[in-house]
Amino acid sequence: MTFTITSPAFEQNGEIPARYTCEGENISPPLNWSGAPDGTKSLVLIVEDPDAPDPAAPRMIWVHWILYNIPAAMAGLAEAIRSDDLPDGVREAFSDWMQPGYGGPCPPVGRHRYIFRLYALDRMLPEMHRPKRAAVERAMEGHIIGTAELTGTYKKHGRCRSASGLSSFGEQRIMSIG
After folding, report:
1. Residue 65 pairs with which residues in a beta bridge?
2. Taking the model in full, what pTM does it have?
């Protein structure tokens, strides 16, 4: 069986609905996965935008969400899952929004790609107390036994809603990198 990650909210390379972005409710989309390799002990989810700040001249990868120590037996995440709703043992790392938790697409210019990458690991990761991406990746080194990807796209249609869940610091930061 092939290791896959999908969402009922959008298709591979399809547009992510505004509901999951800074122009909507800024909630996480529902995600489903299957086919993790034999020997999988935990999963890591990293959601990133490789097109920041401008897809015509990308300069960085913007991290939107990191979860680690997802139980291997889990088959997905519910829509709008919050930190308090995560199963025991699942940990969140800091995103580039400078906080844990999901931060949806909010591209300053153009249509960006958002990659939901799921890693199967042959071990649980140690407690790292809200690490950043680099620390999670260092802990994963030598333990990745499978990878699955789902890519969605988004281009802003208007202004971010004030109820988006993004701090003004976060919005100022993303605008300043453009």
Report:
1. 47
2. 0.90
